[in-house]
Amino acid sequence: FGQILLMLPKNLWIRTLNFCEPWVRELWFFRTDRLGRFEELLITVNIKTKNFEEFENAYKRLRVYNEDLHHLLPKSQELDRITALYLLYLLSFNRYTLIFPGIINRNRFADFHTELEKVSQEDQQNQYIKFAITLEQALAVGNYSSLFESRKKSPLPHFNVFLDRILETIR
């Protein structure tokens, strides 16, 4: 039933849920909430295994749950931490690199700012997101000494995966 609802336009499936029996709504919300939590776990696993492509895909799927269903589901408690990880990911892949002849990895600096615009002013005060913003500012002005010190001040161990990539690029 949930799969059929997601194929409908958003405003139509929300109205459809309103006419369902309460137990159907609760089951759908429970299932959808569990899928969001699964994506959060998948993000953590992908960082530990350094599978960055799947990390990005899982993050984008999680954003669907938190943006499109924000009025139906509670906000994830891990969303700020995961958003900060994604911002660091964008900073750490912020250069043109030749992967194979003719295939170039694009500059992610603009993506960082686009993603940051989606974050509310209140959430930007969160320690994790603030850490990513501070790193971006240090990169922008070329304050490399503070970047090297930031590894010691990292609020989460998962941040170090992306910090190492940034520091490697600087060296």
Polypeptide structure, described:
The radius of gyration is 19 Å and the shape is globular. The chain contains 10 helices and 2 strands, in the order αααααββααααα. A two-stranded antiparallel sheet has the order 1-2. The longest helix is centred in the N-terminal third of the chain and has 27 residues, at 22-48. With 171 residues, the protein is mostly helical. Helix content is 70%, strand content 4%.
Helix content: over 70%
How many separate helices? 10
Sheet of most strands: 2 strands, antiparallel
Q: What gyration radius follows from the Cα positions, in whole Å? A: 19 Å
Low-confidence stretches: 8-13
Q: What value does the average pLDDT take? A: 76
- Spell the H/E element sequence: HHHHHEEHHHHH
β-strand number = 2
Based on secondary structure, the structural category is mainly alpha
What portion of residues belong to β-strands? under 5%
General form: globular
Within the largest sheet, what's the order of strands? 1-2
Termini, distance in Å? 53 Å
What tags apply to this protein structure?
globular, 2 strands, 171 residues, mainly alpha, two-stranded antiparallel sheet, 4% strand
In summary, what is this structure?
By secondary structure, the protein is mainly alpha-helical.
What order do the helices and strands come in, and which of them pair?
Blueprint: H1 2-7, H2 10-18, H3 22-48, H4 52-68, H5 79-92, E1 97-100, E2 103-105, H6 109-117, H7 121-124, H8 127-141, H9 144-150, H10 159-170
Antiparallel strand pairs: 1-2
Helix pairs in contact: 3-4, 4-5, 5-6, 5-8, 5-10
